[in-house]
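Late entry, written up from scratch paper. The run itself happened at the end of the previous shift, but nothing got recorded in the book at the time, so transcribing now.
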Amino acid sequence: MLDAMTALTRGTRLVYQKGLRRYIFLPILVNLIVYASMLSVVVNRFSGWLDSAMAAVPGWLDWLSWLIWPLFFISLVVVIFFTFTLITHLIAAPFYGFLAAKVERQATGREPLDDRGLAKTAVDAIGRELVKLGYILPRMAALFVISWIPGINVVAPILWVLFSAWIMAITYLDYPMDNNKVTFRDMRARLSQRWWPSLTYGGLIMLVTWIPLANLFLIPGAVAGAVLMWDHHYRGARDISPHR
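Output as recorded:
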């Protein structure tokens, strides 16, 4: 059975082979531009954000500053991470969808079920990313609130890690599923049914995205790896969503 590390390794080797390399340069360029822009903003304002947040803590909670500071730091870092991820994927989604289709043809010998033209595929890909945003943002906001509730917030870092892995699974495994006409609801149901490969692949991609600069070149491999995961773990799961 294909595991997450094998899928990512094979996918990364695959996208840099002759025939697929030309499909990854634009996504890498998009990631590089967004990465450089966000890094500049974070470097210039991060300490100010932390100082402002700590100044807003009520005086009667000063004795908890040793706990509040690291919790806020972790939450802010995760929010920045998600912002970077969401922006890059919103912009690069049409390229990733196209790359996933090419990988599926070359790696599996199967044609994606998608029969849309290139222009419609690009437009629909952006629409699909907005659907993901509608799913992710309310849950991310709820977790951010939980991170500030005394007592409950001690488990917030664990919840953030699990949530991040789940969102990475949704983000990447959705590309081959969208190409094969799997609805967003059904896609989430398939991932839930096979939660272990979903969370392990999402968790691995989460770790990959934290590697400075190297992540720009590994993300296309993550898209290709998602195609391999789709073919091995999710393609055969049919009609599993209760709300079709």
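The mean pLDDT is 81.
(Scratch paper discarded after transcription.)
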